[in-house]
Amino acid sequence: MARVRITDLALRDGHQSLLATRMTLADMLPAAADLDQVGYWSLETWGGATFDTCIRFLNEDPWERIRALKKAMPHTPMQMLLRGQNLVGYRNYADDVVEAFVGLAAANGVDVFRIFDALNDPRNLRTSIRAVKHAGKHAQATLSYATTPWHTPDTYVALARELESMGADSLCVKDMAGLLKPNAAFDLVRALKQAVRLPIHVHSHATTGMSVATLLKAVEAGADLLDTTISALAMGTSHSPTETLVEILRDTPYDTGLDLGRLVRIAAHFREVRKRYRQFESSFLGADTRILIAQVPGGMLSNLESQLREQNALDKLDAVLGEIATVQKDFGYPPLVTPTSQIVGTQALLNVLFGHYKRLTAESRNLLVGNYGATPAPANPELVRQALAELKMEAPVTVRPADNLANELAGIEQELKTRLGAASVSREDVLTYAMFPQVALAFFQTRVKGPVVFAPPPDKPAKAAAAAPAGPARFTVNVDGRDYDVTHEPGRDGAAVTVDGTTFRLAVRPRDAEAGAAAPTPAAATADAPLETVEAPMPGTILKLARPEGSPVAAGETLLIMEALKMEMEIKTAKAGRVHYRVAPGETVKAGAALADVR
Q1: Separation CA 342–CA 360 (nearest Å)
Q2: How many other β-carbons are positioned within 10 Å of the β-carbon of residue 35?
Q3: DSSP class of 558
Q4: Residue 310's pLDDT band (boundaries 50, 70, 90)?
Q5: 75 CA to centre of own chain
């Protein structure tokens, strides 16, 4: 027996799970000295949603963050979460982008790369593992845990052997929803230890309340490494407390050897830091046992509740949860983790609201035809045929999806130079732009202002002076599981609303009666009435207008594409005529909002 090593997740998954990933570098660095001396195997500090959040909400350069953390904690390996061929974005990237990103991340301070694929398709990990090994860093390949008829210890053992043959240095069992039961953890870890020679790392969220017991049984079966989070950022949808596991294992053959005194100081620091992020605090802090039945990640469940509440359909939640199991089976039993959890959950919601597969999202179609990789089981053949027809494809993709992508890094660099009007750009900025083009451009303009600063909200709002003019109001709005920073500034002729750096002018329009306008005659109203007013089926953001304003459209033609629940949805017309849009790209709309008229 050997002592168990610990990876602490406070600087990434801890605050991502509980505080919407909003913690800034400035609130991490004061604890760096203690974090570096505790004795962790690694500290998870980068990847996942941190890259996106840094440039979207914090005005902080993610590359500067990892450099600063590495400088402040030189004795402890820095770890990141990498989505295989998706890197830290939400699409497959060509191999040259993957190789460049991994190489630059290693050069900037990442030592351990935890690499996962939502489908457990090892082909989607191959380039990342090779790039990590080329950089001389630690490649930890991941088994995304699921509870389906197609996910058994034998299937995980077969995958583990393949990942070992690809050069992985260790394996992680990633239990993203807290579904790994203690005895199942024992059986799985024991089977893996017998099958491969690699260290086994166990990652289990506390969402269902089982994680401490699960980690202990994994240790008994031979797990070498555990993920925990300092107690100030533990439990709820986060992870088991570091101090708890350290004390349970103390004076046993598995003793972690971690310095409890430093852990207590670290916890005290983050308890104070957490107060600054009260506005982003997760409302879920206990154990959600519904997930034991629904078998879905906690974040997915809260998003579904939010969507149904927006549409006054919260009574359909049980039906949606039941439909998730059907969709997961029809889609080939993918594990429910980013992005497949969003794909399956959104499709289940659409099925309940609009009919069984009457609307397939773009992501659903791509998953069914193999554009994300091979699903664990064969997908429903009728749905595959439907998706192929809608995508105008003749056959599903059977090769590694990235094999169909040409090298793109040089083109992305040239595009960024053109957009910025610059003769040269840094490689870090090129890769930031590759991940999130529109968000990156806005960030490059504001980066000089430095990161945002969060202060704890006052317990009681201070009274404003009677004569003080009304100033801009700042608040956060959550739409489809995503937070938007909103500023509302009133004015005589309307208001200015700024959403994530983009300002919209809202003009005041008097009512017809107040303006003295004559009511339209019935004849005039009839002549101008649209053949169809196309409405938003659910809340979302307009991404693209598919046809020019005023152009003729045929019945069944796509008018626009909107994003809802992080998925792309085509909005079609049932009538033929000319389209006249009521919205523009970038607008956020509610369910039932008028999007276009067809006359």
Answers
A1: 13
A2: 26
A3: E
A4: confident
A5: 30
Cα–Cα distance for residue pair 213/209, rounded to 1 Å: 9
> Measured between alpha carbons, how far is 55 from 442 in angstroms, rounded to an integer?
9
Residue 10 pLDDT greater than 80, yes or no: yes
- Give the start-end residues of each E strand in 145-210: 170-175, 200-204
Residue pair 534/559 in contact by the 8 Å Cβ criterion:
yes
Per-residue pLDDT, 273: 97
* CB-CB contact of 81 with 12 (8 Å): yes
C-alpha to C-alpha distance for 428 and 103, rounded to whole angstroms: 11
Distance CA(506)–CA(160), nearest Å, equals 56
DSSP for residue 361: -
Residues in a beta bridge with 588: 541
**SS3 letters across 12-56:** HHHHHHHCCCCCCHHHHHHHHHHHHHCCCCEEEEEECCHHHHHHH
**CA atoms within 13 A of residue 287's CA, in its CB half-sphere:** 11
If one counts every other C-beta atom within 10 angstroms of the C-beta of residue 467, the result is: 5
> What is the model's pLDDT at position 544?
86
Would you say 585 and 576 are in contact if contact means Cβ atoms under 8 Å apart?
A: no
Residue 508 has a pLDDT of 46
State the chain's mean pLDDT as an integer.
88
Q: How many other CB atoms are there within 10 angstroms of residue 271's CB atom?
A: 13
Model pLDDT, residue 484: 55
Euclidean distance between CA atoms 555 and 598, whole angstroms? 10
Does pLDDT of 173 surpass 70? yes
pLDDT mean over 445-453: 94
**CA-based nearest residue to 359, from 346, 340, 378:** 346
CA atoms within 13 A on the CB side of 80: 31
Which backbone phi and psi does 256 adopt, to 5 degrees?
A: -75, -25
In this structure, which amino acid lies at residue 23?
A: M
Residue 468: CA count within 13 A, CB half-sphere: 8
- Biggest CA–CA distance in the chain, Å, is 88
Amino acid (1-letter code) at residue 205? H
Q: How confident is the model at residue 366 (pLDDT cuts 50, 70, 90)?
A: very high
The pLDDT value given to residue 474: 56
Q: What CA–CA distance (Å, rounded) separates 281 from 301?
A: 17
Q: Is 163 left (phi over 0), alpha (psi -120 to 50) or beta?
A: alpha
* Continuous H helices in 38-178: 50-53, 62-72, 95-108, 126-134, 153-165
Q: Kindly tell me the burial class for residue 110, based on how many C-beta atoms sit within 10 Å of its own C-beta (0-12, 13-18, 19 or more).
A: buried
The whole-angstrom separation of Cα 156 and Cα 306 is 34
| 473-479 and 170-175 beta bridge pairing | unpaired
Structure tokens belonging to residue 329: 């089976």
